[in-house]
Amino acid sequence: MRQNTLLSTTLREAPADAEVISHQWMLRAGFIRQLAAGIYTYLPLGWRVLRKVEQIVREEMDRAGAQEMLMPAMQPTELWKESGRYAVYGPELIRLHDRHEREFALGPTHEEVITKLVSGEISSYRRLPVTLYQIQTKFRDERRPRFGLLRGREFLMKDAYSFDADWAGLDQTYWKMYDAYQRIFNRCALKYRPVEADAGAIGGEGGTHEFMALADIGEDTIAVCPHCEYAANIEKAVAGAVAGTGTGIGIGTGTVPQTPGSLTVEQEDLAQEQEKIHTPGIRTIDQLVQALGVEANEIIKTLIYTADGQAIAVLVRGDHEVNEIKVKNVLSVENLEIANAEVVAKATGAPVGFVGPVGLTIPVFMDRGVADMSRGIAGANEQDYHIRNVQPKRDLSLEHIGDFRNVVEGDICPRCEEGSLQFYRGIEVGHVFKLGTKYSEKLGARFLDASGSEQVMIMGCYGIGVSRILSAIVEQNQDEQGIIWPMALAPFQVHVIPVSLKDEIQMKTAEELYQRLVDCGIEVLLDDRDERPGVKFKDSDLIGIPIRIVVGKHAAEGNVEFKERARAEQKIMKLEDAFSCVVELVKASRVQKSL
Amino acid sequence: MRQNTLLSTTLREAPADAEVISHQWMLRAGFIRQLAAGIYTYLPLGWRVLRKVEQIVREEMDRAGAQEMLMPAMQPTELWKESGRYAVYGPELIRLHDRHEREFALGPTHEEVITKLVSGEISSYRRLPVTLYQIQTKFRDERRPRFGLLRGREFLMKDAYSFDADWAGLDQTYWKMYDAYQRIFNRCALKYRPVEADAGAIGGEGGTHEFMALADIGEDTIAVCPHCEYAANIEKAVAGAVAGTGTGIGIGTGTVPQTPGSLTVEQEDLAQEQEKIHTPGIRTIDQLVQALGVEANEIIKTLIYTADGQAIAVLVRGDHEVNEIKVKNVLSVENLEIANAEVVAKATGAPVGFVGPVGLTIPVFMDRGVADMSRGIAGANEQDYHIRNVQPKRDLSLEHIGDFRNVVEGDICPRCEEGSLQFYRGIEVGHVFKLGTKYSEKLGARFLDASGSEQVMIMGCYGIGVSRILSAIVEQNQDEQGIIWPMALAPFQVHVIPVSLKDEIQMKTAEELYQRLVDCGIEVLLDDRDERPGVKFKDSDLIGIPIRIVVGKHAAEGNVEFKERARAEQKIMKLEDAFSCVVELVKASRVQKSL
């Protein structure tokens, strides 16, 4: 391809609203352009990268035995009502009416459509299992589209859906997809971690993994054990050791979990009385720490929530955060929201900031970290007062103890119980999920088993954010000059730059090299623009093609300058050697593909 | 691919609303499924064919120097207001609002988006010309979606847009695209004709061609000269010879076009007086023909229209039909509608059915066919009366004479003036169009020319109905048993069918053959279903894979049955020979690709 007519203008500056580096570089290097908030055009350079990701995804899906197809973007909302998602999906679901006033949704995912379809196509166990996928534009009206392709409203996604005859079958399919995902992200040269994620009410233990590209700007926090292979989204991660297994939840059983001896409540402590203290205007943990000269971990934080309309209290240590997903899962509720002042006052008699667990009549859910405290400071349920020496074991209901907090860095790994968890930020680029019968039950995807009795299909779903991978790759592969594309995804593999269009030898050498490389099936961008060399080199670094061959003043002696974008050194070498180096490097990347 | 788990169920019958054969076969053979009116899912078989069409389109677009990219489906309607299409596009444009009540349209085409984009990227003549394309899902809320993929509301389209510095450049680009289209449709093995089409107010002569796949169910009529290369959509086709050149239009000039001597009005005719005749309840041409015992071509048909609000009359011969597009173009109006009874009465004083040209005070547009009549019967502008012996040259205003009718079969070709036009039905699968400055003017796509002065870019647009091609191909390639895919588009190239799953030799032979062909890069469907042979053969004919190899009772002697779907004969041959035949046939189709 000749750069002069390539529709790709490099920009000196990125617009002010491009907050993250991948967004800035992709705009500046001419890969994407914004049409509206969260809605982007892929210019030829960006589209070439996207096609490469798409192709890798396709090859690995096919290799895993999945079948490609294409479902419509416009989905009748009747289907969404049937699945029950119509009511809960909220404004992210883009709705529209056709000329006959029939309502449609623009598909953010396709569980409903595929389940309905398969229910009409498959009726016997002999046709199972089957995994179907598509690579398609999806629509999601994000409240805050941002970070370029990372959180868009219209984006390219690979979504796959599996149908198995039983759970054991789903398990096999699930790990087959998991493996395919690893191959895909490896081939994309992405630095990533598969992490355990929250599966909500369905899926069960190990029922879902997210594939997280590691990047500081990631919107997810993941907890990783450096000692074993444990890695989990903070939504899901649990702390080990200190609080016992961290998974057995004592809710509703009335039993008090065993606590390690080192932290048991001592006898003399039990003798200490509660003491009401005057804390005028002191509402937050920070203020308490300041005012009383204590540590945050000596405070019991009490939060009032409404859980499907009912007021409850959740207690965590002052230095911990409530993990609402864990609370929701234990309660099996749809909606969990922090209560407003009115609800708080009604439930506790106190204004926000002075709420405490002592004497509460609403259900109290106590994190293990609180149960393990010998004593603590809590709100007094009275304006401007707190209480010292609240002893959970003595003063509070121990009926609902469990894991209700986010892990913090340094928590013990729940798997090996040796390593201390470390935190990373991640961009979710893939997600595998055991759906079970959630959709097949509601949309009637049934089949007859070998004995002729009717069963519900067991489903899984598997997503990859195809366009999002571009952002993740750029976040991980860039420097102060621009993008550094890995060979497998680069829009072109080689950038041939003649320094002077007026120099006949340079142009002839460049043109011949260009043609020779193209004839070998190598993708080459030839900078045939009438620009100053400085501009050309700057643009070249910005665009980030892996290999650059400059045909300049040494061309007269048959030499060119060879440089890899990822390396600093630039070598002057014989044209022939440069050609061989290119072929070698491109070939190496192809070997990786077939592994 | 193994057929047992292929998501493709064959159906005994097509739904009653599948009116055309391509729709029926594609449903029955398991290529597509309807999700809503005009909205289809492509099952794996259908998707494979679609991908092949897509790939052919992509290769030929790239070969023609066009650059692939991807624009969003969601377009801010501000852009449509800027171009002026928002008001005129009507309910086919699907509109929606995002969560902030901003209005978007789902792109039916992308002239606005691309023009705006290019206006921001290109500012110098040195970066022109450039042609950009995308292969993308489009949305159009058809009033009557029907015929399966032929008239859908969500469909796959290739749309390309070119930007040139001048009209000569556009001309070059236009014909380059025209050639690419021919290669594409040839490679798809489509029987088609490029035809001249109406370009409306812009584009000028030769400014647009449609590529019509020939099929009886086509919604377009095309007029073709068997003597020369002339072919035109009936919207555009003109008749030659009889009415002179057929292109010079005498509107507003007051000149009477020359008419060939053989048809001039003779002197004695001029002496014949108009004669009012009583025709109670006789309103239509057919009724007049019946009641008066005349031929339709002896009648002058008078139609009253409102043209942008103004009443006008159009006269054509009784056996001709008004071509409203021609009238619209001559008048340069946006809206042309047949007038309602009220308007007719006001303009002519007569009820519908008795309107005639004599004495009319509104502008009268006379088709040449009428001007060439020596005399005719027309309405008398009075209830239940007509007039005989209306002599256009004597009795009517000749101010606006032109070509205002559809050609009819047998009309003389306007190009060679020798052949008689023949009619065919066609499915529009492609369209190339000179847009000129329509969008670049309004959306500000300007550049500086070599002398530094600002110019408006000259645009062209080029569409291909990718999904529609499937229907066209099936219409042209099917028999009573099902579809007959051409090799280039077939979902699989070879269908290997072991007759009995229980026969070890058959299964071993079939599996080995399957693997060997797959290893050669050939696409094979292996029917590993536990079905009766009759069912397998029937499904095979229905699906229409070009080559079928049945591994049956002859397998023990190392023989298989070889059959091409397009041929009746079935040969028993050595396995090795069958293998060679397949390789040969597949190779032949690949040679065609590189031509």
Offer a quick outline of the entry.
Chain A is α+β, with helices and mostly antiparallel strands. Chain A has 17 helices and 31 strands. In chain A, the strands form 8 sheets. In chain A, strands 3, 7, 8, 9, 10, 11, 12, 21 and 24 form a 9-stranded mixed β-sheet that branches. A 5-stranded mixed β-sheet of chain A has the order 16-14-15-17-20.
What characteristic shape of chain A results from the CA principal axes?
globular
> Could you give a short account of the major beta sheet of chain A?
9 strands, mixed
Oligomeric organization of the protein chains: homodimer
Give the rounded overall mean pLDDT of chain A.
Answer: 92
Poorly predicted sequence stretches spanning 5 or more consecutive residues of chain A: 243-265
Write the CATH architecture name of the largest domain in chain A.
2-Layer Sandwich
Total strand segments of chain A: 31
What share of the residues of chain A lie within helices? 25-40%
Name the pair of protein chains with the most residues at their interface, and give those residue counts: A-B, 62 and 61 residues
What's the level 1 CATH class of the largest domain in chain A?
Alpha Beta
Q: Assess the beta-strand content of chain A as a share of residues.
A: 25-35%
Distance between the termini of chain A: 29 Å
CA gyration radius of chain A, whole angstroms: 29 Å
Q: How many distinct helices of chain A? A: 17
